[in-house]
Amino acid sequence: MIEDKPAERRCIAILVDNEAGALARVIGLFSGRGYNIDSLTVAEVDPEKHTSRITIVTQATPMIVEQIKAQLNRLVPVQSVVDMTTEYESVERELALVKVCCTGEKRVESLRLSEVFRAHVVDTTHESFVFELTGAPSKLDAFVNLMRPLGLVDVSRTGVVAIARGSEIM
Amino acid sequence: MPAATEKSGAQRLTGAQIVVQALLDNGVDTVFGYPGGAVLPIYDALFEHAELRHVLVRHEQGAVHAAEGYARSTGRPGIVLVTSGPGATNVVTGLADAMMDSIPIVCLTGQVATHLIGSDAFQEADTVGITRPCTKHNWLVKVAADLPRVLHEAFYVATSGRPGPVVVDIPKDIQFAEIDYFGPKNIEHRSYKPQVTGDPKKIEAAVDLMAGAKRPIFYTGGGVINSGPEASKLLRELVQLTGYPITSTLMGLGAYPASDPQWLGLVGMHGTYESNNAMHDCDVMINIGARFDDRVTGLLEAFSPESKKIHVDIDPSSINKNILVDIPIIGDCARVLGDLIKVWKRRKLTTDECAIQPWWTQIDKWRDRQCLKYKQSSTIIKPQYAIQRLYELTKDMDVYISTEVGQHQMWAAQHYKFEEPNRWMTSGGLGTMGYGLPAAVGIQIAHPDSLVIDIAGEASVLMTMQELSTAVQHDLPIKVFIINNQYMGMVRQWQEILHDRRYSHSYTEALPDFVKLAEAYGACGLRVEKPEDVDDVIKEMISVNRPVLVDCVVDKEENCFPMIPSGAAHNKMILSQEESPREMSEEGKVLV
Ligand SMILES: Cc1ncc(C[n+]2csc(CCOP(=O)(O)OP(=O)(O)O)c2C)c(N)n1
Ligand SMILES: [Mg+2]
């Protein structure tokens, strides 16, 4: 009667009316019902129609994923909910700003690695770099891990956004 | 933005006048409320409208329960009007209750002026923040021009789809602002569009499954009642057409007549032996408007292990939440029931009597256990006896029953038999002590000439007792029938079973004299202590055309059976004191 399939990573996209409290409703639903949030992004995507898109990465069993979708759909301002991981072939991207403080050999090595990762230097001083890097979350993880021994001091990440490949829209 | 598309001749009014006009235009005749600084303009507007009845309660929680009683007994939304801050926080329990039981409530709260929001102003509370998880939706009106649309939308959201409570928080400056008003025409919402018609393919598949059943059972719930009287009518038709047995959740009582031979009684933790065993052993379960609540399913792993399940629910999130089902049908109960009947008839299906006969024989064996039997006493009133007598003496009347929460509630569900929907008002999902008395107030307002009885526990009733004063003020002859066992009986029963009779703080040592209390409120107080006097006191209670409080002094330590201990399967019921376990699994203890 109870499903015991293991939890999986899912990326869920939610279109909502951009009205006061819409984000609070979505987040409150996750915390209130004990669903987890690995990352969350939100921004208005259609100013004319006042529509915002929220992207949440979660870990859940397939049965719970269905519950999450159904519960989200119950919220009045929610227009549509899509599991980008299973319902579409989708592209996922995340942006990171990574600050490294170092000099000498380490400074040279960090710059060299940033080129390998196609990161941009968006700010620099004699003893620091801020790199901007876009990619799949795993690529960002790898870059951050490589920077650690070279003087990583600060990381800021946007969380994942996703969109369907091809001409399909959600 | 969502819009009322047609402006039916815009009128210039203040926000407060618009509130009153919008209530009238949405068919409201009664408001349950309590005034305060942040709603004074609305109260001022009400002053001129005698056609809108305002029922002044004694505590805002009572306003919501009264509105729930009104809503559930009429099928129309219940309206609440309270002030900001403490007025708003006091409605939270009622809103949570209405949310759990899907009761349409439109609750209007006053708020401090928009420029003061966020400044910790006097009587400011983050009302939309606090009520967000216990409402279906809520609004803070920050722009005056939005007010008419929001009010009409509030009615639409509260009453459509799966009904529920909504809150509209209205700052004081918005109540004074002058704006254009338009009526509630063609209200629809951009994002919110409940699905009411079931998928025809699923309906065909459900009928196939039903027609081939050997051990079927209908398991119905509050969704049938919420769908309206038509759903109950269609349910009766379908159940008779098939000849299958039927049980119901606490919230669904009355949708099917209890006097019918196909009726098996209540299902779940304190449901009947026949219902629970039939649920466990069935091969096809037809769930109409119930939600596989844990009080019904018991141990999930052992819940009806061999059945194929059909689940009709208007809320997609109810599907596969607790129990995986084979045929989910999303839609309104009345529509889907109508479609099931149509398909059954079109395909000229008949019940396979040969297949069903052994099933009924088995059910009759379970019935022979007479699970609701109790040991009668000649010296002390048994609570079950009191409720049985109450039933016998009122069943032919135009009667509505509400309850508080506890053993008395379960005994009422077991022993009071309902023939019609909307006659039974109880707090199911939230289990709110203090629900019944104010609910009775709301019911009596809606049905002034009917007999309205709150079957109460002495502990519960003290939580909202002050609403007796409301009943006196508004000439509402409600009857509060207290099953007084001096204990929080349901708590004591669990302590007896789970905690080795360590009755920690479940005995109320200083109960009031309920007769004097009733008299102090200006109501009539009666007491009965002997079994032979029960009938006379009930008759007297009925004959008094004023609010009456009956202190029915019963056996203190009677337990409510049958019972499925938490964490057990349906076929592991305890039928009597003698069978009570002294041990319970660790898992079961957690589930209480
Ligand atoms: C507001 C609230 N607080 C606590 C509880 C937990 N509780 C459930 S039943 C019960 C005892 C009710 O006692 P009483 O009203 O005398 O009814 P009885 O069980 O004795 O019939 C309690 C405390 C509750 N359901 N609601
Ligand atoms: Mg009691």
Summarize the structure.
The complex is a heterodimer of chains A (170) and B (592). Chain A is 31% helix and 41% strand.
What key attributes describe this structure?
heterodimer, A: 170 residues, Alpha-Beta Plaits, five-stranded antiparallel beta sheet, four-stranded antiparallel beta sheet, 31% helix, B: alpha/beta, six-stranded parallel beta sheet, globular, disordered N terminus, binds magnesium ion
Characterise the protein shown here.
The complex is a heterodimer of chains A (170) and B (592). Chain A is an alpha+beta fold and 170 residues long. Chain A folds into 2 domains: 8-88, ACT domain (Alpha-Beta Plaits, 2-Layer Sandwich), CATH 3.30.70.260; 92-162, Alpha-Beta Plaits. Chain A is built from 4 helices and 9 strands, in the order βαββαββαββαββ. In chain A, strands 5, 6, 7, 8 and 9 form a 5-stranded antiparallel beta sheet that branches. In chain A, strands 2-3-1-4 form a 4-stranded antiparallel beta sheet, covered by helices on one side. In chain A, helix 3 (104-116) packs antiparallel against helix 4. Chain A is elongated. Chain B is built from 24 helices and 20 strands. Residues 1-7 of chain B have low confidence and may be disordered. Residues 404-408, 431-433, 457-460, 483, 485, 487-491 of chain B line the site of thiamine diphosphate.
